[in-house]
Amino acid sequence: MTAALMPQRYPAAEIFVCDVFDALPKDDLATMEHPIFSLSTRPDLQVLRYSHNNAAIEVVPSVRGRATIHDKDILIYCISQLMAALNAGRPVSRMMQLRAHDLLVATSRETSGDAYRRLREAFERLAGTRITTNITTGNTETTSGFGLIESWEIVRKTRGGRMISVMVTLSDWLFRAVTARSVLTLSRDYFGLRRPLERRLYELARKHCGKQAEWRISVETLLKKSGSGSPRRVFRAMLRDIIAAGQMPDYDLELEPGDVLRVTPRGGLVAPGDAPLLSPAALDQARALAPGLDVHALQAEWQAYWARHGRVVLRAPDKAFLGWLKLRLAG
Asked: Which whole-number Å values give the CA distances from 15 to 11, 74, 103, in the listed order?
């Protein structure tokens, strides 16, 4: 993306260009913890009021409806790009320019004309949804109303009107979370989850269970934290369907007596400190071998490969990683 493609009123130095291919998916802790996004497949025009422990949230939809859990893919893509840049020591900005096609591909969406129309609608819901909360991000508590994204506009489009590149300005609230590194890595398979509740359950499992041996939560509390508007008996039936389908990445779910959901991580997850350590020099070599790729994403992929293949003790982890990377790039 060249500076010539950017509107003149935006100084190029203030714009972060999303150009990291295959960035590791990242999500912010606050929206993983609390039910900001609608799980409805129809326009959700209801005002959400939620409080739990010391957190209070009010989410007011626009006439287009409240932003949905699928709309959140846009924010995950933006967060992922920013974190990849921060990890590489690059400057970042909450004013971002991205290619619509890259966003669709990264979030496992089709690239048909209808997909671009749905993407535009998602931008409109994200900008129109207003939030008032006392949730702290980056050690700052926000109590005034704000949108999930402050603004967006199409910078370039085809003759037929399909967006090519888009300018997005994130809210200060969300940008603070990123710069404070209040984020978690998601499985790439997250984008393959089509049912809204499945996605929400994965978020909660990733946030609360992480790589611990297990996490338990009552169905009553889970219903509240999920943001689902279904009655408890319907919600419980939906949980059983999701458990039976077995599509949840990284975690196994089980309903226990007493109306409790038990979550356990699968063996492929690697806890920090458990995986072989790589030197900065090895990561620099990886950047040279795979320009444009997120080396931290490659490192995580290699660590998962190492875990799946027996977690053998490596005498030369740098050499093993770089050998694996060369084979991956050749394949």
From this structure: 7, 17, 17
